[in-house]
Amino acid sequence: MPEKDLHIVIVDQNPLRTAVLRDGLLEAGHYQVTVIESSLDLDRRLAEIDADIVLIDLENPNRDVLEQMIRISGATARPVAMFADRSDSAMINAAIDAGVSAYVVDGLKKERVKSIVDLSVSRFNAFARLRDELARAQSQLADRKVIDQAKGLVMKAKNISEDQAYSMMRKVAMNEGKKIADVARSIITAVELLK
Amino acid sequence: MIRPLRIGFMPLTDAGLLLVASAKGFDRAEGLIFELHAETSWANLRDKLGVGIYDAAHMLAPAVIASALGLDGFSAPMVGAVALGLDGNAISVAPPLAAALAEKIEGDRADPVVTARALAAVVAERHGRGLPALRFAHVFPYSTHHYQLRLWMRLGAVHPDGVRLTVTPPPLMAESLRGGFVNGFCVGEPWNTLARDAGEAEILHPCRVLTPDCPEKVLAFRAETARDEPELARAAARAVRRAALWGEQPGNGPEFCRLIAHGLGGGLEPAMVAAVLGKNGGGAPWLRLDGESTALAAAQALWLYVLIAATGQTQASDEQAERAQAAFWPQDGAPPMPSAPAFFAGPFDAARWRDILALLSAPL
Predict the structure, then answer these.
(1) Which residues in B lie closer than 8 A to residue A61 (C-beta atoms)?
(2) Among B42, B49, B168, B308, which would you mutate to test the A interface (most chain A Cβ atoms within 10 Å of its Cβ)?
(3) pLDDT digit string (tens) for B182-207?
(4) Which among A66, A80, A93 has CB closest to B51?
(5) Which end of chain A is more exposed for a tag (fewer CB within 10 A), N or C?
(6) Domain A7-133 is in which class?
(7) Highest mean pLDDT: which range of A26-30, A84-88, B150-154, B157-161
(8) Could you tell me the residue range of the domain that residue B33 belongs to?
(9) pLDDT tens across A26-63, in order?
(10) Based on the domain organization, do B258 and B293 belong to the same domain?
(11) What's the CA gap between A61 and A67, in Å, rounded?
C-alpha cells in the first residue's frame, strides 16, 4: 500500500528561502506543502491545517508556540520536536548549523522524517550559499563602480588614457598589498578632500 | 587560566545578573569569561544547550524540572546551578478587556481574587452572548507564566472552557494584542512595561502578589556536564552571586540598572529596570535580583514540581518528587520559600507538598 502523502508546513518569513525549500520538497515528490509567512496567531492557523511535519527556521521565536502544540492539542495536531531522537546527533547538529528545525507528528516513520529533514538542511544550506553569492556579486558590482569613478578622476587630473589610469592604480594596489577597489576608494576620498 | 563559558540567554530583565557579572568582570574573578549570546526562543536555548553549542543557559526554572523528569520525552536533563532572581512576571490585559473587567470589579482591584472574579463574570457574559472564548498568552508550556495564569483564574473559579491559554513570543505580543489574537498575557519584563507605555495593555498584577518569591529563571547546565565538571558550574554560580551582592550595595543601584538596560539594548531605559526592581524610591519590587534571590534549594524545585503536577502535565509520584528536587543544586545560604497567600497560609512546606498540590488542583 502506498504511504499517505505527507502534509508539510513551512513557517518562515523569508520568501526566498521558503521558495528554495518548497521547490526542493516538490522535486522530491512532496506535493502537499503549505507556507505560513505571517508569524501571528500561529497555533490557531496550524490547528486548522492538520500538518504532519512543520519546518521552521531556528531563529523564529514561534518555535515556542510549536512546543505548546505538542501538549495541548491532543488528538488534532501533535508535533514533536525532531530533537526527540537523540541517537541521531549528526542530524541534529547539521540541522542546527543550517538553522532549521522540524516538528513532526508522533508515530511517523523515522526514515520518512529523516529524508525530509535532510532535504530541508541541504536546501537551507543552498539558500545560505545563494545569499552569499548574491552578496558577493553585489559587492563586485559596487567595486566596479568605485574603480570606474576613481579611474575617471585620475584620467582628468593627470590627463592620461583610461588604460594608463587603470595600470597606475593597479601598480599602487600591488605595491601596497591592497585591493584595487580600496585604492579607488582612497582616491575618491582624497579628491573629495582636496576639492 | 581563564576559561570561556558560552551562555545563551533571552533578552529579558532577569538575564540582568549575567549581564552585570560580565560587564563588571565578576566572571573573570572566578576564572571564567561569560560569552553571552542572545536567543529568540526557549526551545532554541534548550536545544543548543542540549547539543553542546552552549555550556550554560538562562532557563525557565520549571523547564529544568521538566527536563530532569523527562516530561517532554526529549530534553537532555538539565540542572539549575544558581538562581537568576525571583519573581518578575506580571499579568496584563488589552484595553478593551481592562474596560470590561472594570465594570465587573467589586472590591480592591489590587487583590487578584477580586480581578479573577471579575474575569469570571466577563467570561460568563461572553459565553452567554455566544462570543468566542478569551485568549490569554504565556511563554512556554513549562513556565511559571503558564502556572501563574492558571492560579489567578482559579481564584475566580473561571470556567475552564471560557479562556484559551496559548503561547505567544513576547516580541510578538503587542502585535497579537492589536490584532485581537490574544486578550491578555503573563510575561516577564520588560514586556509588560513596554506594552503599558505604548498604550497596548494595562498591567493587572505583578505575579509577586500571587506567588511571592517564586523561582523564575536559573542558570542551567547539562546534568552530564555539571556532574563531570562541578567546579565549572560552581564558579559560574559564584560569579552570578557576586553580581547580585554588588548590585545590592546602595550606591551601586543606578549603575546596576544602567548595565542591565544597556546590556539588553532596544532603547530600554535604566529607569524602567529600576522601577521593577523597586530601586526608584517608590513601589515594591516585582523582580528580585538581590543576593538572597540567587540561592537555590531543593524545596523550590519541589514547589515547581507541585505547579507542574497541578497543571496536569504529569501524574504526581514520590519518585518524581525526589528526582525533581535533585535538579536544583543547593547554594550557599537559604532562599526565601515561595508561597501562595490566596491558597494557603505561610511559606511552602515541603513536607506537605501533597496537601498543597491537592489545594492547587481541586476540581473547581
Answers:
(1) 40-41, 169, 171-172
(2) B168
(3) 999 999 999 999 999 999 999 999 99
(4) A93
(5) N
(6) alpha beta
(7) B150-154
(8) 3-85+215-326
(9) 888 888 899 988 778 888 888 777 778 888 888 889 88
(10) yes
(11) 11
The interface pTM score, or ipTM, of the predicted complex is 0.91
Query: Distances from the Cα of B228 to the Cαs of A115, B7, B51, B221, in angstroms?
Result: 35, 18, 16, 11
Cβ–Cβ contact B74 with A under 8 A: yes
Any idea what the Cα angle at residue A187 is, between residues A184 and A191, rounded to 5°?
Answer: 145
Which of B73, B88, B84 shows the shortest CA–CA distance to B16? B84
B172 in reach of chain A (CB within 8 A): yes
Amino acid identity at B341: P
| pLDDT computed for residue B248 by the predictor | 94
Chain A contact set for B167 (CB, 8 A) = 43, 64-65, 67-68
Tell me whether B311 touches chain A (CB under 8 Å): no
Q: Quote the mean pLDDT of chain B.
A: 94
B40 and B100 part of one domain:
no
Specify the CATH number for the domain of residue B95. Answer: 3.40.190.10
DSSP letter, residue B132:
P
Assigned fold of A137-194 = Arc Repressor Mutant, subunit A (1.10.10)
Q: Residues A101, A105, A107, A110: what is their CA dihedral angle, to the nearest 10 degrees?
A: -30
- pLDDT tens-place string over residues B260-287: 999 998 889 999 999 999 988 777 899 9
Indicate the number of domains in chain B: 2
